[in-house]
Amino acid sequence: MAVNTEEIGSVYDALEGKVTGTLDKLLGRYTITEATKGQVISNSIVALMQISASTAVDSPVKEAQTALIDAQTATEIEKKALTIRQREAYDDNLRIKGAEFLSNVVGMFGAGGTTIPTDLNTAMFDAIDAITPETTP
Asked: How far is CA 116 from the centre of its chain?
């Protein structure tokens, strides 16, 4: 963000007009003296110059801060997506391990020559279906 000196100049002119107008009214009412008017105008100019100098110095800093915040926001969005993918991967791995465990148990029943309980056989097929992607004909 570049500092627009024309814009700053127009702000100076507007403020100077308001300060001078107010001081002229007060001077017209004999509330202040010419010396006080001059001092107030001088102080206003100094204050405006200090503000504009700090604005000019702060402008690149604010620009860098804005860029940093934008980069952090993008990173946080990516982290959220990564966290979701990791959670889904852990869930997938748990389903796979569960299906492996059940198929091993069913295999042991079959290897031992015993009848495989229907509930165990159904649970194994359900676990395998949970990790197998559906295919469309």
From this structure: 55
